[in-house]
Design a protein that fits this description.
By secondary structure, the chain is of the alpha+beta class. The protein is built from three helices and 21 strands. The chain is elongated and about 130 Å long.
Length: about 375
């Protein structure tokens, strides 16, 4: 019984090993020839070379959509890649003579050589030479498995950029450096690869790494741009004060029907927080006056009041400037008693009175009573 059991186990092991071998061979046979680059190519001594091919991938980039942006805008740049690589010709490097077998190998090699202009493993990133345009690092590394000659990428590369509020209008050139591999040579194995454990590999492909940098233009649109360039006047507690604010158009285009507005919050207030500026051309400054009130208990300090300008652009469209700060100081009126000091003095006096009353109470409740 023991001998029979041992034989049965040996048969099972043999069957499992045989099944594993069959599966491994079938899996290897199912690997397409294009996947040959997944293996280390054999040395030249195991191969024959019949042709030398001329040509390589030629990658181009085109932007999908508009590349004109406004200052302060965060937007996507969608880039499509195309491969315009072509084969320039073949050159025979080995005589075939009358061998039918070698003739078939040479024909097969020529078919494989046509893949020379295919780009594999394309890695691309977007680089901004200017600090005024920032590229989001989360989208700055893109990968594409392959790009055949004459083909356009199915899915575009998507990068996210942010334009600085201080970027002057004009063209900015962004760069897309990329690396990829391409098939530099094909050699037929003529069955010699079986000695390396790859019996079904009828050819060996050798690859080189290529680098290419493509430029993408980004346009920052000209527009009117406003800054607060001067503030005069001081706020006084418990009263109304006049503050003069100077706005300058630091942009490239004029603004029409411009209106300045202050966004005033407690402890400050204003019943006339909107002032008309009118037409203001690039480089021009205009000053308007605002009347601002402050509460009596407001803290004495410098306040930053938000301000913005609404205007019409050269296309007669309504636009709003970025938010600006109007910095003003709040002070006590001359000769007035500081309310904070009065409050502190009141607290001190109250404390002293409580202490005296407490001592008198303790004295009246002493040991004699």
């Amino acid at each position: 019984m023991k001998e029979t059991s041992k034989k049965t186990n040996r048969y099972k092991v043999s069957f499992i090993l045989l099944l594993a071998c069959v599966l491994s061979v079938s899996i290897f046979m199912s690997v397409p020839m294009a996947a040959a680059k997944d293996y280390l190519p054999p040395g030249y001594e195991y191969t024959n070379n019949y042709y030398k091919t001329y040509g390589e991938p030629d990658i181009y980039a085109s932007v999908i959509g508009d590349t004109e942006f406004e200052r302060g805008e965060t937007a996507q740049i969608r880039v499509s890649l195309s491969n315009k690589g072509v084969l320039y010709g073949f050159k025979a490097v080995k005589m075939i003579n009358n061998s039918e077998a070698e003739h078939q190998l040479a024909i097969q090699e020529m078919e494989y050589e046509k893949l020379k202009t295919t780009a594999y493993g394309i890695k691309a990133s977007l680089v901004s030479p200017s600090e005024l345009i920032e590229v989001d690092t989360a989208t700055n590394s893109q990968y594409m498995q392959e790009l055949l000659p004459g083909a356009v990428s199915e899915n575009p590369l998507v990068f996210i950029v942010t334009i600085s509020d201080n970027a002057p209008a004009g063209a900015y050139m962004l760069e897309i450096p990329m690396t990829y591999e391409y098939q530099s040579d094909v050699r037929m194995t003529a069955g010699e690869s079986g000695r390396l454990g790859l019996p079904s590999l009828d050819h060996a492909s050798y690859y080189e790494t290529a680098n290419r940098t493509i430029q993408i233009p980004v346009i920052v649109q000209p527009e009117a741009k406003f800054d607060v360039t001067d503030v005069s006047g001081t706020l006084v507690k418990g009263s109304e004060s006049e503050v003069n604010v100077t706005y300058t158009n630091t942009g490239e285009l004029p603004a029409f029907d411009a209106v300045a507005r202050l966004i005033v919050m407690k402890p400050l207030s204003s019943t006339h927080s909107i002032r008309s500026i009118g037409y203001i051309q690039p480089g021009e400054s205009k000053t308007v006056s605002f009347v601002i009130s402050s509460e009596l208990l407001a803290v004495e300090k410098a306040y930053g009041i938000d301000s913005e300008i609404k205007y019409k652009d050269v296309d007669d469209e309504d636009q709003f400037s970025k938010s600006m700060k109007v910095h003003v100081d709040l002070k006590d009126p001359d000769g007035a008693i500081n309310v904070t000091y009065l409050a502190i003095i009141g607290l001190v006096i109250t404390g002293i009175v409580l202490i005296i009353k407490n001592r008198k109470r303790n004295s009246s409740n002493g040991p004699d009573n």
